[in-house]
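Fig. S4 source data, part A: sequence.
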Amino acid sequence: MNGSSVEHIPVLTGILAEQINLPPDGVMVDATIGHGGHSLLLGRKLGTQGAIIGFDVDEASIAGAKTVLADLKCKVVLIHSNFAQMAEHLPGYGIEKVDFLLADLGLCSAQLTDSDAGLSFRANMPLDMRIDKRLNTTAADIVNESDEKYLADLIYRFGQDRASRRIARFIVRQRVNEPITTTGQLAAIVCKALSRPGKKRSRIHPATRTFQAMRIAVNGELENLGRLLDSAPGLLGKNGSIAIISYHSLEDGMVKRNFRQNAKDGIYDLLTKKPIVPSEDEISQNRRARSAKLRIARKQ
């Protein structure tokens, strides 16, 4: 990925600092290390016997986090891998149980503005959307090679767009003329599909849900989140905590159901009955925080 100077502001850091008490020799796993903002804040509570294990599929994020976390007293291990493989990696580093597991499921600002990533409709970029460049399938592959029903179902399931059939029809019709290879092309097609006389304008960009659907599909985001949630009880030590920050209802629904089922089964205590959301002050300073929801549970 091309580097970006765009600053990434981690969300809900104050709440996490209040809610999570790490012992000096504790082990924190940051499932999405990003630029290291959350780990830097919480890692200051750790001493020389403590450790932060960070995962990320984006090599640029790993490199950035290494610099940001360099001055912490605790041990820092950064792993270029998806958090879905966490349970497979940790034993190799001598980690048996974890005191705190954090996953911020949002994209960092640098990824959204990266000209190679193809994640944004606000600039014309190659239609890629792979956070992990080791993946084989791009958004362009899905858009150009999938049949109309598959596209419609994907946009409806992952984008929750009720106009998914119309969007898919317009995509298939347009690609007959030329391949859809850029974010600008796809955004324009979606806007055209949703443009109807007299229709009330949405507060979000018309292409938002379609782009969300494609990104989720390309990166297997919901499947990977499911694997993380399933493995977490076995990774957490007694009284260890798990915190998940999600940004749309599909993610938050998965976390809510998992936490509640584990609480029902006597595995977790729910520390957040309802999700914690950013304050108006935080949102005014960081617009990308506006859809964030934080849920926390503790292993019994």
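Fig. S4 source data, part B ends here. The chain has two domains: 13-110+221-299, 114-219.
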